[in-house]
Amino acid sequence: MKNLKKINKLLLITGILTLGFLISSCDPTDVLKLDNNCENNWTTEVQDELTAYGNAISAYSTDPTPENCNDLKKAGNNYIDALKDVEKCVPTLNQADWKKALEESKAQINETSCE
């Protein structure tokens, strides 16, 4: 159960960071240096991974087995990797915080014990 609380906290932090970057990217005063592929809402590019992560959290919370824990870690890492793939869409002003948050989240996922 301790792992579940840690993972839920991680998901909440990741969601808040994502929302924060989305909101700040809409500020016309930001200096934006975005790749040409960022015209569309980039959150749709990570939706599959986010959904899989949410499903894995649900499965683990219902049945906290080592197998479901490992599935949860895999889904979490896939989500973080997908977020790294859209880094080009994060305003330059926020990229250092974005990278740090992703690195910390990935480390926390990987430190979670499934035993």
TrEMBL record:
Keywords: Signal
Superkingdom of the source species: Bacteria
N-terminal signal peptide: 1-26
Name the record gives this protein: Lipoprotein
